[in-house]
Design a protein that fits this description.
alpha+beta; 5-stranded antiparallel sheet; globular
Length: about 525
Amino acid sequence: MFKKKVKLVKRAKEITLTLSKLGFYNIYEYFKLLFGLEVDPEAKPKKIREALERLGPSFIKLGQILSTRPDIVPVYIVEELINLQDKVAPVDFSVVEEILKRNYGDRLWEIFSHIEREPVASASISQVHVGYLKTGEKVAVKIRRPNLEELIELDAELMYKVVDFLERHFKEVKEFNLKGVIHQFKRTTLREADFSIEAQNIKIFQQNFKNYPKFKIPKCYYQISTSEVLITEFIEGTKISEVETLKRKGLDPVDIAVRLTDAYFKMVFKDGVYHADPHPGNLFVLDDGTIVVIDFGMIAFLSKTKKKYFFDYIIGVITLDLNLAIQFYEGFNMFTPRTDFNTFETDLQFFLEKYHNKRLDEIDLKEMIEDIITFIRDNHLRLPTDIAYLGKAALNLEGTVRKLHPTFNPTERLKKFISVSTKDYLIEKAYEVRDATELAFYLIFKVEHVYRLLIRERITQQVVFKDMEELQEFYSLQTGKIGFVLLFVGLLIASALFYTAGKESLATAILVISFFIGLISFYKLLRF
């Protein structure tokens, strides 16, 4: 425990030093600016974003999550966080060799004939080297950064302490549920850092796209991959963002844009599992036009019910059906006690009409993001993780598709997708009718069961008052502080009395003890 506290203090010192170089006083002040609790004209959004990049993997991942949370981060910060760069200086190859030897031991050079010393990519979680197997295949060797899990744990603990401080001093912070955001960051980052999970993700996508034309998931070498090292097929293709190169190779960017969009529709609405980070660095095109997706550390799942809500919302957008669109917000439990329903309906109608049936070249992305953020914040909506992740993926995908096909009309493509899926949609509605009928039938027996319980059984109800619990905790802490202060004063008085009585050695011992008790009291009084 003591060793961990020492590491925590050391990490806090590193963070403070990094922030001070960028002009921030400490981590508490920085988080106030990040969440818009205070506004400092000198602290530009760009500087806030750069601080996250310099603070390391944990803060980069936190920033990526916050870029999808316009309900808790001010619009001008969100716009900057979208540009967050996940590029970190690579670790030395000697460290990489140690990790490889730890995972493969004497088998290392029985498996590989050569591994390039310079990485081809270096991010917050890992770095990638080109390798060659003894069997001749060229592979991508993805290696997790050293001590990453410990760093994530330490940073998460520091973030919890910062949030505790903010919750004590700013009433509105409790509504943000920042501890939930930190828990999400910690869970998703640790999952992304476990390459055995990523290997399983690759297997899922390979199965889902097994017979899908012109869309490829790289081969994974499961037998020689571990939780720290992932070995996959090395993709020799053109980045999807290099449009001129694609044209020179005789490939049609419009066709690529349409096929990529259709593949994502399949992921979201059919498979219920999608690649959550489709930026251009993770998308390649082979010379025959095949689209290849890499890096499956960040994926997301949609349950059958949630897929239905999204499907209904799309129909609502296409047909301008306000009631159907509202069901989406109800289904995801986005309304809060502060939401004014009349204002919400008016704002939603305006938003649907503004972006209905627009081509990409007719949409100002920055303006659209601002409209979405304003809509969420003005109506005090709660933003679920599912929507936040899908929104982030959609923004990345939109940017990629815009480069390939600026006049692409997403609404028109959605209409084609829905026309193909109408049969499935009707079947889904038939299942809903069946479920409703079953519920009505069994409801009679459920009501009777509850009635019998009320009549014959003793029902105990327990009411927990959250505010009362917090109040009890507060008074308990204050009582402890008062106790230490009284002990400190009592020992000082006792020391003085013993000096007066001529027992100097005993008086000195008591004075020393009182000194340490005084330090503890001082620490407890200043502790937030």
